[in-house]
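Input (structure):
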């Protein structure tokens, strides 16, 4: 199989497998007042410190969660629940946030009467920081713009957005979902100025069900989970030291390899794009916007993504769609609607994402396979 769905989950890094193997049999509860507990606590706190140092976050601000979804949900609900009465009951988000942010905002609107301003994007998914700034003059409790989009890979100027937000609306808490960015970019610089940052372990080559909310600055933030006081009172529940050390190890590898990986993977991605454009009639959705190295978003006009993906999978290529099929009806993705992609193009949208294990031979095989599948489906149509 040629696996080109790394943005959904990427294989464990060898270093992660080694560290997980080393710690798998450890059973102590990190809250335990005994040697087994202290050993687990040490592993957890070392992981916390390492992730803090790698991301420009004070160690005590690294709060482990069950993944990116929980961290996103918590950032939105936690900030709005703790917001002082004097601060506007308003959230500013981009139109292409992951549903973990978008639906959490919708819930605030439904349950607390929160005003949610949605900032539009251009045809390649870029947020203009000036659009965020113009909304900020009316005040806001939370600004949440993702560092890079999961479908398109478009990178957002979140440091610029954070700087403007702090200048114009000092009460606003700035959150960014950096789940897709963390495997590629240095978060300390790309998300500089953001108060809250979401990361997810399994996108980095760590374990599934792991993640963190990075709290860079003390901001009003109510816990989502209560009942134990763990994580300095930020998140109740027995901590997962194994997941934490796996994520810290995966992040260390990503940071260590970042420069070389960006060059190698973006070269492979460009080759895949050119091969699919020339060999399979694909149209690249992004051409000028800054994009993550591993993302390739294309559309096959007049074709149906689910049929394409089924054909690719049967021929040994794993990719994913920007649209999903619910009870027989093709539902257009919110992201593709936000960039104004025509429905006929969006229906045939496919995301290929490369990662740390992708090879040149895999890319050549994918070009040949995808081209053959597309040709077969076109002939049949
Ligand atoms: N945010 C983004 C941008 C994502 O791509 C994902 C997962 O695909 C998530 C949040 C959710 O992360 P998790 O799968 O760790 O819950």
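Output (sequence):
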């Amino acid at each position: 199989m040629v696996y080109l769905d790394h943005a959904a989950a990427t294989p464990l890094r060898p270093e992660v497998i080694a560290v997980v193997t080393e710690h798998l049999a450890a059973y102590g509860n990190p809250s335990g007042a005994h040697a087994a507990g202290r050993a687990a606590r040490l592993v957890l706190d070392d992981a916390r410190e390492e992730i803090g140092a790698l991301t420009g976050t004070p160690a005590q601000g690294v709060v482990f969660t069950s993944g990116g979804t929980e961290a996103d949900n918590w950032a939105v609900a936690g900030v709005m629940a703790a917001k002082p009465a004097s601060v506007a009951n308003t959230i500013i988000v981009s139109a292409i946030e992951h549903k973990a942010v978008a639906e959490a905002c919708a819930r605030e609107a439904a349950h607390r009467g929160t005003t949610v301003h949605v900032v539009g994007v251009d045809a390649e998914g870029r947020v203009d920081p000036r659009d965020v700034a113009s909304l900020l003059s009316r005040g806001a409790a939370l600004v949440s713009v993702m560092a890079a989009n999961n479908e398109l890979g478009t990178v957002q100027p979140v440091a610029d957005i954070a700087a403007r937000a702090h200048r114009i609306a000092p009460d606003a808490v700035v959150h960014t979902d950096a789940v897709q960015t963390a495997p590629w970019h240095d978060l300390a610089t790309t998300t500089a100025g953001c108060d809250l940052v979401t990361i997810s372990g399994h996108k980095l080559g760590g374990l599934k069900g792991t993640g963190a909310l990075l709290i860079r600055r003390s901001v009003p933030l109510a816990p989502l989970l209560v009942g134990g006081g763990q994580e300095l009172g930020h998140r109740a529940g027995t901590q997962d030291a194994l997941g934490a050390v796996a994520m810290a190890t995966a992040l260390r590898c990503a940071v260590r390899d970042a420069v070389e990986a960006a060059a190698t993977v973006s070269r492979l991605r460009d080759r895949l794009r050119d091969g699919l454009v020339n060999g399979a009639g694909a149209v690249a959705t992004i051409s000028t916007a800054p994009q993550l190295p591993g993302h390739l978003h294309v559309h096959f006009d007049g074709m149906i993504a689910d049929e394409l993906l089924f054909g690719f999978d049967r021929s040994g290529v794993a990719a994913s769609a920007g649209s999903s099929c619910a009870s027989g009806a093709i539902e257009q993705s919110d992201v593709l609607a936000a960039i104004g992609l025509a429905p006929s193009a969006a229906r045939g949208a496919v995301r290929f994402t490369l990662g740390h294990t992708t090879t040149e031979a895999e890319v050549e095989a994918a070009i040949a396979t995808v081209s053959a599948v597309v040709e077969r489906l076109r002939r049949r149509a």
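Notes: Residues 241-280 form the longest helix (40 residues). DSSP finds twelve helices and 15 strands in the chain.
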